[in-house]
Amino acid sequence: MSQVFSKSPKHCAERQSFTISKKLLFVLSSVFTIVLVFIFLIRLTLHPSKPRFSLTQADIYQLNLTRPSLLNSSIQLTFLSNNPNKRVGVYYDNLQAHASYEAQQITVDTPIPPFYQEHEESNFLTAVLQGNGFPVAPGFGYEVGRDRSAGRMVLSFKVIGKLRWKVGTWVSGRYRFNVNCVSVLAFGPSAAPSSPFIGSSRGTRCSTDV
Questions:
Q1: What are phi and psi of 43, to 5 degrees?
Q2: Could you give the CA distance from residue 66 to residue 70 in angstroms, rounded to a whole number?
Q3: N or C terminus of the chain: which is more exposed, having fewer CB within 10 Å?
């Protein structure tokens, strides 16, 4: 006697569901692969170069100790930002700047408004960095006095933020970037021994890491 084996409706439904899931997984994998290839081709073809920053002006209006370890500071900066890419625009987000002296931060983090930069476009950015009662190391006054005698002061300025590349209508994810500037500021004519330090500097090229 021969036996006839037939699949139950439940078995057919499970098989059909497995086939649909397999097809869906294949479609998602294909889309993901296409997106990765597209991003890779953009990077390979366009070679987006990192933005260039330079410190065009730095003016110190106040830098004096109210107590041995508390500092009042006011520094105005002007940066020149340049996008060297011919086919790639740049969005700048979450920008913040601060000043440092002898490897210690001397101002609070100051926000800079976000902006978009077209192909090969340049923009000026300004920021006023301040620190009221900002805590510093006990030897800060000695270091400043030594620099006052030398007639110059070396300050570091840092800008941190995130950028996004724009190609046509496509916009990339956010990439963290850092801008570091080192500037030598000379004592101004009003910087008498009893007055706050007043100094300025111009034309400093900065390094950018993305």
A1: -65, -40
A2: 6
A3: N
How remote is the C-alpha of 68 from its chain's centroid?
A: 33
Each residue of 145-187: pLDDT tens digit? 888 888 888 999 999 999 999 988 889 889 999 999 998 888 7
* For the chain, percent of residues with pLDDT exceeding 70: 79
Owner of token pair 């030897």: 139
Higher-confidence position of 196 and 71: 71
Looking at residue 192, its pLDDT comes to 44
CA 185 to chain centroid: 24
CA 192/CA 188 separation, integer angstroms: 9
pLDDT digits (tens, 9 = 90+) for 108-132: 999 999 999 999 999 999 999 999 9
Residue among 122, 119, 102, 97 at smallest CA distance from 178: 97
Q: How many CB atoms lie within 10 A of CB 97?
A: 24
CA–CA separation, 95 vs 20, rounded Å?
A: 47
Residues 143 and 84: beta-carbon distance below 8 Å: no
- Over residues 67-77, the mean pLDDT reads 90
- Spatial CB neighbours of 209, under 8 Å, sequence gap ≥ 6: 50, 177, 178, 180
Quote the CA–CA distance of 102 and 50 in Å, as a whole number.
28
Is residue 75 within 8 A of residue 58, CB to CB? The reply is: yes
